[in-house]
Amino acid sequence: MIKKEKQRYILFRIITEPDSKLIILSKKEFIDILWNVIWNYFGMNTANKIGLWLLKLDWKKRYGIIRCSHITKEIMISTLSLIKEINSERIIITPIKTSGSINKIKNLAGDF
Predict the structure, then answer these.
(1) Among candidates 46, 78, 27, 24, which has minimal Cα distance to 98?
(2) H-state helical runs in 43-101
(3) Number of independent structural domains in the chain
(4) Would you say residue 1 lies in a domain?
(5) Residue-wise DSSP of 57-73
(6) pLDDT bucket at 101, cuts 50 / 70 / 90
């Protein structure tokens, strides 16, 4: 019998410089950036195990929600922290909360 893989949800905040223009990327563009960081820093073997899904990305409120495997949660947190620049704009992406329940993360995200 195959066990169902446990999922983790990561709520993250996007921090930019106060005088910077609003960065707006599509979900696909942001996922491409995440995959590039994963491939460059962790390699293809790790990338195959991630199970990455971007559930929410709100550039105006500056937060997002990612779903990944419970085994690769720490790698995803590191990946978010490794992103330093998008479209020549300095940026910090900081994880706020990790949970096994999407409802807990959505409740926290509602505070933004």
Answers:
(1) 78
(2) 44-47, 73-82
(3) 1
(4) no
(5) EETTTTEEEEEEESTTH
(6) very high
Residue range of the domain that includes 65: 7-109
Any residues with CB less than 8 A from the CB of 78 and at least 6 apart, and which?
41
The answer to the question of residue 88 being in a domain is: yes
pLDDT in tens, 20-70: 777 788 999 999 999 999 999 998 888 888 889 999 999 889 999 999 999
Which percentage of the chain shows pLDDT scores above 70? 98
**Using CA atoms, how far apart are residues 111 and 80, in angstroms rounded to an integer?**
21
Distance between CA 109 and CA 13 in Å, rounded?
A: 10
Q: Which residue has the tokens 């495997």?
A: 69
Residue 28: inside a domain, yes or no? yes
Q: Is the pTM of this model over 0.85?
A: yes
